[in-house]
Amino acid sequence: MNATTTLVYDGSFNGFLTSVFVAFDEKINVADIQKNNQSQNGLFSETETVFTHVEKAKRVWNGIRNKSHNAISNVYFAFLSETEGVEMMLYTYIQKLMRTQNGKYLDYSDSTVLHIAQLAKKVGREKHRMEAFVRFQLTKDEIYFANIEPDFDVLPLISKHFRDRYADQKWLIYDVKRKYGIYYDLDHVEMVSLNLKDIHHNKTVKSDAFAPEEYEYQTLWNDYFKSTNIASRINPKLHTQHVPKRYWKYLSEKKEAV
Amino acid sequence: MNFDRIREKLNILADAAKYDVSCASSGSTRTNQNKGLGNASKMGICHTYTADGRCVSLLKILLTNHCIFDCAYCVTRKSNDVPRAAFKVQEVVDLTINFYRRNYIEGLFLSSGIFKSPDHTMERLVSVAKKLREEENFNGYIHLKSIPGASDELMYEAGLYADRLSVNIEVPTISGLKLLAPDKKHEDFTKPMEKVKNEIVRYQSEHKVIKNIPKYAPAGQSTQMIVGASGESDKDIMYSATYYYKTYNMKRVYYSGYVPVTHDARLPAIGSQVPMLRENRLYQTDWLLRFYGFSVGEILNNQHPNLDMDVDPKLSWALRNLHHFPVNVNTADKRLLARIPGVGMQSVDKIVKARKFRKLNWDHLKKIGVALNRAQYFMVCESRLWERRDLDADKIKGMILQNSTGKFRNQYSTQLSLFN
């Protein structure tokens, strides 16, 4: 039996790409690729810690992208799903991709390829939903502030969307689950970590942090939401299918439902 | 801003606008300029969904529900006794901007009852859009409703500021229109459409020469018709829709199951059921015509003037045309694959990609996402298990219905429910 190695990386996407580089470069027989905070020693494998190296990561990124644009976005999206064991699956996927002549013609009847594509699709769906379901609330210091709590780590994916759209206002979107946010200061977007003592759901109780007219607009929106409903066509099942309940506590039109 | 008064108006004027089906915010190419506000998303975004399950993407309101017309199907009709209100231009602008800044909406859908005259009303609508674009530097989506009978000059101006224009033909047949909207003429609807179509064509051809000319209604035109109010057949509706798609380059035709809103002997009584299933079947047919290469005569014709309610239109067509089947998924071209019931366009693409590597069998097809409960009777693949060769249409239909649980199934079930 060949000696196998478990690669441990820092949990970042660049760290993961560096691991892939190291594995290819040193022709390592990879047993697993794990984040450093959750690594477990395998019974019969060595452990090697990989230090993130941006240049190496970039080479892997470009290598995949040159094969196929679709594949590079699949890899990034699937990685952000934070699914357990996704790293090893991605590693297999990248191996397969590198072996093909043309990355455009990936074999969708192969289970790894299909699975990665499906994961990427799930993450893409949540990205799209977050673009829809972010609800900004205007704070007293004129920052439009929003909390989100997505299943997948989509903040890096939605940053451009909000930058393009709200170029003339300061905004901050904060991921409650992962405890970091993205902040736009009218110039560029940066990552911020905050220690929020209040989570600011769209509560019915007013908070001092927000501008007084904020609650007026929330009421108007709430009213609007109600008056667009056609009672004779009501369909709660369809409604929750489109607006899953786990998002409700951050939606101002669902205030009363919380 | 007087929020209480705005609140009252919003309740009245959103309520009156909700019967307009269109809420699309897609298809525009407008981008954020000079660090302004807003950026139209090509695919559109639904920001929430109403309790009846329809997408909310735009702030959809009427400028006013005062109206000089008396169309039988309309809540806002002159003779209907409802509270009336009217927004000021600036109020609509403020609402739109503040909702947009909070990421509630993609933009504005502004329609109106007709007060004084069509031109007087249209002018107000245009000035809202103009203010948003020029004073607020707003690049979000604007959908303006063309007022029937508005002048060419105003229609031209509207297209400069709006992403989409629409005028609802409401009643699919001219005779129905005479009956239900005696004040309106067919030409009142088609004249603004014609104008907008010609302008779009002109701007597109100029755009080929000069790249930076302003946009003119980049997301095109749409229209809507009411279904089930004037006794028309599905064939009438779809032929009429096809006519509008072809003649006026419509981006979308919407179908709106009639919701009884007034007491009128010419119309279904208040409380009668909204024909939602029929509406659903019409949208499916519309899809088949636009994306699946069907022609309207194949699906609806004199022998078959109405859509089946118990099966979808593609399946219904396939059952009437069994001689086209079975299709071999491993060799057939895209056009034929798209005609198999249970195979959507996405599956067609995946099949074509995957079969480069190996011949596909039932397992592969299932993983790809083909609805085998329907598709299995109409295709052959890399498997000898195809036992349906001798079934006739009735049997196939029976087997499919028996093994499916469609969302409308209970409406057709003959099973009595115990406690009703």
From TrEMBL, chain A:
Domain (DUF4130): residue spans on this chain: 86-253
Any matching Pfam family: DUF4130
InterPro entries per UniProt: DNA_repair_put, DUF4130
Protein name in the entry: DNA metabolism protein
Organism annotation: Flagellimonas oceani
From TrEMBL, chain B:
Keywords: Iron, Iron-sulfur, Metal-binding, S-adenosyl-L-methionine
InterPro entries: Aldolase_TIM, DNA_rSAM_put, Endo/Exo/Phosphatase_dom_1, rSAM, rSAM_sf, RuvA_2-like
Cofactor requirement: [4Fe-4S] cluster
Single GO MF descriptor: catalytic activity
Alphabetical list of SUPFAM superfamilies matching this protein: Radical SAM enzymes (SSF102114), RuvA domain 2-like (SSF47781)
Listed Pfam families: HHH_3, Radical_SAM
Residues covered by the Radical SAM core domain: 62-238
PANTHER family per record: ENDONUCLEASE/EXONUCLEASE/PHOSPHATASE FAMILY DOMAIN-CONTAINING PROTEIN 1 (PTHR21180), TYPE II SECRETION SYSTEM PROTEIN K (PTHR21180:SF9)
Entry-linked NCBIfam families: rSAM_link_UDG
Protein name per UniProt: Putative DNA modification/repair radical SAM protein
